[in-house]
Structures are given as structure tokens and as C-alpha cells.
């Protein structure tokens, strides 16, 4: 009897083993991520599309190629959203839903990234990370709640070094529900650089790029690559004057869509910065003359026209191949303009900025005090080098994307990032899906920290920033000189509880 029971048990065990083997052979693991057993979820599952009882503002944007006149002498083939450079300006009220239907009529894939917005990961517009690129002839709908008022912009994140250069960008304003400001006028100014004398020069084959000529202002590459500088897609005398009556105030929303630093010069006692990167700045009634705007940054400026004759906002940055005298924005009191009577600004030609992206404290901070014991401490070494078969590359911690070490976080973590530029070019570093607090520069703590989503790190500089990991997803942290990002200067804030199905 014992022998019979033993034989039955052996047979049963063999059957179980055989059945398990057959299941293994027939199972399909190609669509299964091994670490799903650790509780990770698809980033698509984080998206809540229930927008009941909310107002919806809807736009249709078509990506298309047009011939665009930068001025009376120069026409270029541009890629646009809705046929203009910049693309159609978008506006939505705080708390409402923004719905944008993208139709791609180009012969290359495109996306839309909503620069600076805190939004669901799958709406972020990064191909092969948060979505598949929108192929020629296809459509995609972006839909999310516009929670944070301020100045933003949108642009393609597909091959962005080229596509943003060719004009695929536009402005986005989220209007505050209750605003204390009562400006008679509001204007949006988008600054950019263009290469109009043929195909732009590649950063990988510029003469002297690794030599001492790059030890100046960190702009050696952009000065060689671009020859024309524009405001709202126009240059020189084609720049449209702004009409502001004598004694009136106007809100200027200025966006740097290019890859070079711009410095705007105003007459004395005319301009005051009120926000950077959609974060209100501390009001000290401080009037400024020269304001620096790094690539990707947005700055809100309140100006008061104290003159009866025309005057200019001048871009006094060193523009390299371009004609600096043509980067001027006329301010007039009415449409009858006599530019023979232009107000002569006597405040000097000081090119040094009074205000930049870290020099004015933010009104509302993420952290009242600098966190003492961050959960994640990440050192980001920004550098450049040469790679066999690739030429010049731009590195984070001696690696190029996708091999750069990610910033691994768990939801709720307090994250410290120390950014040091050990290279010779400027790197405006932009974090998607979050805002961070800049607490120190070159080991000197700020008395009045700033809240940003982009910080320009110049050669030799070190910044310490903090943010809270409170928006699950897979988020880029990259240089917004997209020529540098295209050559490797990208990493990812990787939430350990989620994964992306779009990663190749």
C-alpha cells in the first residue's frame, strides 16, 4: 500500500512539473515587464480624464510648413503650428481644462511639450518616453487641467534641436482667477535666433570648439550657428511696435525660445520684474535696466511708458554673427510713428544684467527652510567630450543619454541636485513636471531663494536645488540648448513605482 501511495505521489508531481513546463513554453512574456511584480504601474494608468463640471478651452493646431518672411529681405521655410511663427497663442483660465487637437501635416513626426507646466506624465509630449511621436497624417489630443497661472510656452520635443529651430513653438498663458494687477495692455514677446544663410552649422564640426576661444561667455556655439535674431518671428524694421500710451502700464510676457542668452535693456525707472518661470517674484519696487533671459526661461515685466516720443527695448546681448542694432522693439504711444524723434536712452551701455533667473526671490517657496536630510542626493556633472563615431558630445556624469544615470526617486522624496558646469558652454537645465527651489550658488546660500523649472548654469558655476517628488512619472531633466540635449545632455527623473510603455 505504501508503495502504491508513493507511486501516485510521484506521478502527481511529474504531472505538475510537466504542466508548469507547458505553461512556461506557451506564455507570452514579450509585453510583460519583469518588475511589475514589484507593484509598478503603467504611466498611462496615472492619467485621469474625468473632467466633468470643468470648463474646457479647445484649440486645433496643425503642424505644417510655410514660407515665412522674417523681414522684407529674408524669407525662410519654417515649420509652424497653424502657419505662423510663433504658433497660435493659447490662453486658458486657471482651473479650466486645456484641450489641444494636434494634426501633423509635416512629413516628419512631431509632438507638443508644454514647457513649465505641472501636468500628467502622458501629456508631457516627450516621444519614446511619455508618448509615441505623432506620425505624418496622424492626430493626437492633449487634455489636462491648467492649474498654475503664469507664462508658459509650447514646442515640439521630437528632434527638438531642429524642429524648435525651424519654428515649432508658441505661447501659452494661464490666466489667474483673481489678479491684483490692472494693466491696460499685455504683450507677448518671443525671442529667437535663426540661421538664414543656408543650413545651420553643426555643433560637432565648428572650428575651435574645444579650444580656448570657448572660455568667454559660454556662447561660442550659438554665436557661430545663428545669424539673425527675431522678436515674434520678425527682425529689424519688421518687428512690430508696441502701442502703450503715455502714463499707461503694460505687462510684457517675454519667452526665450532660442538657445542663446538675451539681455533686454530698458530706460531708467520704466521696468520691473514681477515673475520668472511663472513664479511671482518678491515686490520691492525695484526698477531695473537690463534683464537677462536664458534659453527656455520666461519673465513677466511690468513697464510704464513715461515718454511722449518713441523709444526702444534693446537686446544688448553679444549676438555674434547677427546685427545687434536690429534687435530692437519699438514702443510708441499711437500708430502715428515718427522714428526721427526717438527717445535717446542716456542710461549707458552696460551689458551686465541687473536681474537674471536667480537674482530675485520668489514670493511663494516650496520649502520655508532648506531641507537638512534629503531622501535623494544627486550630483550632476555637466561636461563635454568627444565620442568615437559621434564627434562632440555633451555629458552628464561622463555619460550621454540614454546611458546617463537617472535620478531615482520614490513618491514623496525630497530631492537635492547639485549641478556643476565643468565644461566651456552654458547649460540651461530644465526639469519637466516639477518646480525646484534654487538655494545656493557656488556654496553661497541665497537669502531669498527662487522657484524655477529652468536654471542656466554657466561654465565654472555650481548650484544646489531642491524639489519634491510629487508627480509620478518618467520626467526629463535636460539642457534646453537643444543642440546640447541632442548630443546627450539628458537624464530622467525615474519614479520607482511606475514605468513607461513607450521606451524603446
UniProtKB/TrEMBL annotation:
Superkingdom in the source lineage: Bacteria
SUPFAM superfamilies in the cross-refs: Cupredoxins
Domain Plastocyanin-like: 65-178, 215-306, 382-494
Short name of one Pfam family: Cu-oxidase
InterPro entries according to UniProt: Cu-oxidase-like_N, Cu-oxidase_2nd, Cu-oxidase_C, Cu-oxidase_fam, Cu_oxidase_CS, Cu_oxidase_Cu_BS, Cupredoxin
Assigned keywords, A-Z: Copper, Metal-binding, Oxidoreductase
PANTHER family (UniProt xref): FI03373P-RELATED (PTHR11709:SF394), MULTI-COPPER OXIDASE (PTHR11709)
Protein name, entry field: Multicopper oxidase family protein
Gene source species: Gracilibacillus salinarum
Amino acid at each position: 500500500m505504501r508503495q502504491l501511495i508513493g507511486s501516485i505521489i510521484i506521478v502527481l508531481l511529474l504531472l505538475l512539473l510537466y504542466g508548469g513546463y507547458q505553461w512556461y513554453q506557451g506564455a507570452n512574456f514579450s509585453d510583460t515587464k519583469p518588475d511589475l511584480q514589484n507593484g509598478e504601474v503603467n504611466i498611462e494608468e496615472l492619467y485621469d480624464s474625468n473632467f466633468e463640471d470643468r470648463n474646457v478651452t479647445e484649440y486645433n493646431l496643425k503642424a505644417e510648413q510655410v514660407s515665412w518672411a522674417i523681414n522684407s529681405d529674408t524669407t525662410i521655410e519654417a515649420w509652424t503650428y497653424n502657419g505662423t511663427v510663433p504658433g497660435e497663442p493659447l490662453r486658458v483660465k486657471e482651473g479650466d481644462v486645456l484641450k489641444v487637437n494636434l494634426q501633423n501635416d509635416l512629413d516628419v513626426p512631431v509632438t507638443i511639450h508644454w514647457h513649465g507646466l505641472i501636468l500628467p506624465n502622458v501629456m508631457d509630449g516627450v516621444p519614446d518616453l511619455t508618448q509615441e511621436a505623432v506620425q505624418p497624417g496622424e492626430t493626437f489630443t492633449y487634455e489636462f487641467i491648467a492649474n498654475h497661472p503664469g507664462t508658459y510656452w509650447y514646442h515640439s520635443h521630437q528632434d527638438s534641436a531642429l524642429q524648435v529651430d525651424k519654428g515649432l513653438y508658441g505661447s501659452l498663458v494661464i490666466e489667474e482667477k483673481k489678479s491684483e494687477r490692472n494693466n491696460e495692455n499685455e504683450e507677448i514677446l518671443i525671442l529667437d535666433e535663426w540661421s538664414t544663410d543656408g543650413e545651420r552649422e553643426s555643433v560637432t564640426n565648428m572650428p575651435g570648439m574645444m579650444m580656448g576661444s570657448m572660455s568667454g561667455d559660454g556662447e561660442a556655439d550659438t554665436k557661430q550657428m545663428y545669424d539673425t535674431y527675431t522678436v515674434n518671428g520678425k527682425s529689424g524694421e519688421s518687428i512690430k511696435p508696441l502701442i502703450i500710451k503715455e502714463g499707461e502700464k503694460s505687462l510684457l510676457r517675454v519667452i526665450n525660445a532660442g538657445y542663446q542668452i538675451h539681455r533686454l535693456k530698458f530706460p531708467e525707472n520704466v521696468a520691473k520684474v514681477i515673475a520668472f518661470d511663472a513664479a511671482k517674484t518678491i515686490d520691492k519696487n525695484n526698477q531695473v535696466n537690463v534683464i537677462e533671459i536664458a534659453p527656455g526661461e520666461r519673465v513677466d515685466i511690468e513697464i510704464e511708458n513715461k515718454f511722449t516720443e518713441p523709444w526702444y527695448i534693446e537686446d544688448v546681448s553679444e549676438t555674434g554673427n547677427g546685427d545687434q542694432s536690429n534687435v530692437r522693439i519699438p514702443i510708441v504711444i499711437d500708430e502715428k510713428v515718427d522714428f526721427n524723434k526717438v527717445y535717446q536712452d542716456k542710461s549707458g551701455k552696460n551689458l551686465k544684467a541687473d536681474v537674471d533667473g536667480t537674482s530675485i526671490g520668489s514670493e511663494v517657496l516650496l520649502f520655508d527652510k532648506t531641507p537638512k536630510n534629503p531622501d535623494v542626493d544627486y550630483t550632476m556633472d555637466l561636461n563635454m567630450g568627444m565620442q568615437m563615431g559621434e564627434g562632440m558630445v555633451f555629458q552628464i556624469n561622463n555619460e550621454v543619454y540614454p546611458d546617463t544615470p537617472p535620478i531615482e526617486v520614490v513618491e514623496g522624496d525630497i530631492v537635492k541636485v547639485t549641478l556643476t558646469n565643468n565644461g566651456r558652454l552654458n547649460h540651461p537645465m530644465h526639469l519637466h513636471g516639477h518646480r525646484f527651489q534654487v538655494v545656493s550658488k557656488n556654496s553661497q546660500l541665497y537669502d531669498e531663494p527662487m522657484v524655477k523649472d529652468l536654471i542656466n548654469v554657466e561654465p565654472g558655476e555650481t548650484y544646489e536645488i531642491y524639489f519634491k517628488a510629487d508627480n509620478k512619472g518618467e520626467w526629463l531633466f535636460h539642457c534646453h540648448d537643444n543642440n546640447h540635449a541632442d548630443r546627450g545632455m539628458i537624464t530622467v527623473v525615474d519614479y520607482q513605482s511606475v514605468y513607461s510603455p513607450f521606451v524603446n
